[in-house]
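Troubleshooting log. The previous structure file for this entry was overwritten by mistake, so regenerating from the original sequence record. Sequence copied from the archived sheet and checked twice against the printout by T.R.
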Amino acid sequence: MRKLIFGVLLVFTFSASAQKISNNKKAIIQSIEKHNAELIAISDSVWALAETAFNEKQSSMILADYAEKNGFSVERGVSGMPTAFIATYGSGKPVISILGEFDALPGISQKAQPTKEALNEGAAGHGCGHNLFGTASLGAAVAVKELMEQGKLKGTIKFFGTPAEEKYFGKVWMVRDGLWDDVDVNLSWH
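Regenerated output below.
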């Protein structure tokens, strides 16, 4: 699991083409390495919780608390969804946002292994890796924020914690309410 989350973070952060690594990219790698143990613990916690749509209370809290711990201001319960949140750092333009999901699917409990075996028969599980998606995306947001703190980047970084993606498409509610209206670019992966 440790190598997997680190790999996901690196893929998210860098293109696959061979290129010289800039100082900012080196700083991002250093940030990810610095936070690696905490990010793995978060991902493992979200995996074990396996909370389904609109029930991601603990998963949302873990992610939002980590954002606050790392200097973001966090607005919780946005767009009428108690588990949706926006973590923001910086000011001005450009406004860069990173999307993170963390909900599980009902009935697909799975042990953390390559063969199919339920952790808890009939319980929810992370079939699409949202435990990694939310955590790795937040790790990327923290790395960008650290570059801003060091004066290497200017602007605002926002992390959108979007619940209920598998069943009710939580980010659609957030878009409807204009939460991305000031965003210049949104980064997402799945």
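The chain has a mean pLDDT of 88. Archived copy saved in two places this time.
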